[in-house]
Amino acid sequence: MGFYVDGFNLYFAGRLVNGRRTPGWRWLDIRALCSALAVRTLAWANAGAAVERVVYCTARVSGVNKPSKPIDQDKYLKAPRATTSVDLIEYGYYSATVKRALLATENPKTHAPKLVTSNWPIMVRDGTHSDVPGAHFMVSYLDLEEKGSDVNVASHLLSDVLTTRVDAAVVISNDSDLALPLRLARKKVPVGLVNPGSRYLAGALKDSATAGVGNHWWYKLTKTDYSNNQLPDPAGGFAKPTGW
């Protein structure tokens, strides 16, 4: 069976689950995690589910806001290769640009955006010094965005399924852009979908366990899943960064 991991989706979801500054979860052993997931259902365990292929999709980060980030990431990307924790790392690219947008806050429960408008104690005034309540604020900000991981996950998933390289697949991501590739894969092989974070599963990724060939499942990672599947330190000669 094959595992297809959206590295950035996994990382940022892990920060929500474990805490941004909490150590002990970032030095993740991907193959160990996959091996635990492979037999999480009785049907897959009875069928002798085994990890044959682990594809990790990511991009090299920019150090524009923190020079140590690409150094730490490079250590992590070398460690799984040296320990065979992954079979293939597929790279997208990382974009660092300046963008402008409306200032907004996020509803902590629904995560829906709410525009910030002028009101006391912060008020906007026009050229005549008259108050302008309800005015919108525009901000210029640094936008750091990873590109390509979702496409790379989908490409490897469908290529391996359609060429019968794998007889079952597990995707680790909560990216709704993967809805169509997952639906197509479920027509051919049993598929497990792992939500790596604390947020709800994206609605577009839901389906019936009996769709297509059936025997599909869904799962959400917990703190224990992260902490119980860590690489040794050092791993393949590469030491874990401080705070990881």
Quick structural summary:
The protein is an alpha/beta fold and 244 residues long. Helices cover 28% and strands 22% of the residues. A six-stranded parallel beta sheet has the order 3-2-1-8-9-10, sandwiched between helices. A two-stranded antiparallel ribbon has the order 4-7.
Straight-line distance between termini? 30 Å
Number of strands: 10
Q: So how many helices?
A: 7
Percent helix among the residues? 25-40%
Quaternary? single chain
Descriptive notes:
The chain is α/β, with parallel strands linked by helices and about 240 residues long. Helices cover about 30% and strands about 20% of the residues. It has seven helices and ten strands. α5 packs parallel to α6. The longest helix is centred in the N-terminal third of the chain and has 15 residues. The two termini are about 30 Å apart.
Question: Key features?
Answer:
single chain; 244 residues; alpha/beta; six-stranded parallel beta sheet; two-stranded antiparallel sheet; 7 helices; globular
How do the helices and strands line up, and which of them pair or pack?
Elements: E1 2-6, H1 7-18, H2 30-38, H3 42-46, E2 53-58, H4 68-82, E3 88-91, E4 93-102, E5 104-106, E6 113-115, E7 138-147, H5 149-162, E8 169-172, H6 179-186, E9 191-195, E10 217-220, H7 223-227
